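ok, trying the design again with the full structure, not the truncated one.
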C-alpha cells in the first residue's frame, strides 16, 4: 500500500524594481508551507529594495539589464542548479494576492501545465486596473484569439507553470512582452493551459507601465508586436 503522493517542490520568482514598501508585504502574504524557495530579483532598484530583500526569507538575485522579462529570466536561471517542479511568478507591488497561490497550484496538481491567474475572472478593487490598461489587455487577448483560436481573458503576471513545460517554451523576451510570449508559445507547444480567477488590488506606489499613458502605449506596442511575432513564427 503506497503512501500519500509527495508535494511538488515549488519556487516563487518575484521581479522587483523600486518596491521597498511592498516587498515585505508580498513575501509575508505567501502561505506557509507553499513555497520551498522564494527568489527576489532586484532589477536595478534605486530605493534600497535590495537591502529590504536581504532581511527577508528569500534568495536575492540581481539583474542589471532592465526589463520585466529580464528579471523573470534571471530568477529562473538562479534555480537551474536545483530546479523545482513548479514555478510561480508573482509581482512585487502587492497588487496580486499571494495567499491565493494555492488556487494556481491546485490547477497544476489537477493536470494543467500552465495555470494563469485571471484578474478578469476574479474580484478587482475599484481603480486597480485603469481604463486604458483594461482596453489594452482586452485588445491583446482579442488579437491572440484571432491568431491562435484560443481566447484568453487576461495577460496578468500571477501564474504557475511546470518546470519542464517552462523549459519547452524557450522564453527570451526581456521586456513587457514576456507574459504574452509565454501564453502564445504555450498554445503553440500544446501545453495544457487553464485560467484561474484571482483577486487584484491597487498596487503600492505608481506602476511603471499603467501609471502613465505613455508607459501604457510603449508596453502596449511591445505586447502587440510580441503576440504577432510568436503567433505567426511559432
Amino acid at each position: 500500500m503506497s503512501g500519500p503522493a509527495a508535494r511538488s517542490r515549488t519556487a516563487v520568482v518575484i521581479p522587483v524594481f523600486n518596491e521597498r514598501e511592498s516587498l515585505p508585504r508580498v513575501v509575508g502574504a505567501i502561505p506557509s508551507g507553499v513555497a520551498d524557495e522564494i527568489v527576489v530579483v532586484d532589477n536595478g532598484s534605486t530605493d534600497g529594495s535590495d537591502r529590504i530583500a536581504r532581511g527577508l526569507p528569500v534568495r536575492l538575485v540581481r539583474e542589471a539589464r532592465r526589463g520585466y522579462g529580464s528579471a523573470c529570466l534571471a530568477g529562473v536561471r538562479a534555480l537551474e542548479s536545483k530546479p523545482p517542479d513548479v514555478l510561480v511568478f508573482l509581482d512585487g507591488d502587492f497588487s496580486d494576492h499571494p495567499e491565493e497561490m494555492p488556487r494556481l497550484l491546485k490547477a497544476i496538481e489537477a493536470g494543467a501545465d500552465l495555470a494563469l491567474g485571471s484578474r478578469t475572472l476574479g474580484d478587482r478593487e475599484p481603480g486597480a486596473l485603469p481604463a486604458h490598461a483594461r482596453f489594452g489587455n482586452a485588445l491583446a487577448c482579442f488579437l491572440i484569439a484571432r491568431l491562435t483560436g484560443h481566447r484568453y481573458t487576461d495577460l496578468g503576471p500571477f501564474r504557475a507553470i511546470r518546470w519542464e513545460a517552462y523549459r519547452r517554451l524557450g522564453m527570451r523576451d526581456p521586456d513587457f512582452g514576456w507574459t504574452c510570449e509565454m501564453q502564445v508559445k504555450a498554445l503553440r507547444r500544446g501545453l495544457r493551459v487553464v485560467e484561474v480567477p484571482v483577486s487584484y488590488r491597487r498596487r503600492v506606489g505608481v506602476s511603471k507601465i499603467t501609471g502613465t499613458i505613455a508607459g501604457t502605449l510603449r508596453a502596449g506596442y511591445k505586447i502587440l508586436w510580441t503576440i504577432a511575432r510568436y503567433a505567426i513564427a511559432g
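Keeping the full-length input from now on. The two ends are 45 Å apart (CA to CA).
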